[in-house]
Amino acid sequence: MTKHIRFVQAALIFAIVAMPFMSLRTAVAASAEEIDREVATALKLLYHHTPKAKELGAIAKGILVFPNIYKAGFIVGAQVGEGALLVGGKTVGYYNTVAGSYGYQAGVQKFSYAMFLMTDSALEYLNNSDGWEIGVGPSIVVVDAGKAKTLTTTTAKDDIYAFIFAQKGLMAGLGLQGSKITKIDK
Q1: Which of 57, 89, 153, 178 registers the highest number of CB atoms within 10 A of its CB?
Q2: How far apart are CA 83 and CA 169, in angstroms?
C-alpha cells in the first residue's frame, strides 16, 4: 500500500508542476516582432557578459538564439522555447526547441542559449534538416565560463559553439543534449 501512496503523491506533484505546461504553447507563441526583439536583447546581454561570444558572432555563418527557454520537471521534465536564426545580423528564420527528460530531477527554470554556427555545413544542416536533434549532426561545444576565457577566433575549430546564459530558477542539471530544433512559420 505504501508504494501506491508514494506513486499517487509523485503523480500529484508532477501534475502540479506540469500544469503551467498545459498553456505553455500559448505562452511561448510569440509574434515574429516579439521574438526579434527578445533575440536582440538576449544577444546584447550575452555579448556584454561574454565578450568572446561577440568575437565568435563576428565570424559565425549564423547565430541561432533562443532567448526564453522554459524548463520544468519532477522525475519527468520538459523544456520549450522559440527563437530566431540570424545570418549577417538579419533574421532569416524562426525555430522552436523542445526536449523531454526522465530521471532524478525537480525544479523550474528559465534560461537563454545561443548557438554560433561556424561552418557553412552546420548552417546547411540546420536549414536542410526536418527537425534537428542536438547530439546528432554537426559537432557542438557547450562553452562554459572557463572555456570562454581561452576561446579565440583562431582556436574555434568546431562546427557549433553554444552558450547557455541568463539562468533563473532552480533545476538540477542543464544541457542541450536531446533537444529538438524545428523551423516554424511566423
Answers
A1: 57
A2: 20
The domain limits of the chain are: 2-184
pLDDT at 76: 75
Give the CA dihedral 81, 86, 90, 93, nearest 10 degrees.
-60
**Which parts of the chain fold into alpha helices (H)?**
2-22, 24-28, 32-49, 51-59, 120-128, 145-150
Bridge-based pairing state of the strands 160-171 and 90-117: antiparallel
Spatial CA neighbour of 43 closest among 105, 86, 72: 86
Q: What is the pLDDT of residues 111-164, one digit of tens each?
A: 999 999 999 999 998 888 877 666 544 556 666 554 444 444 444 567 888 898
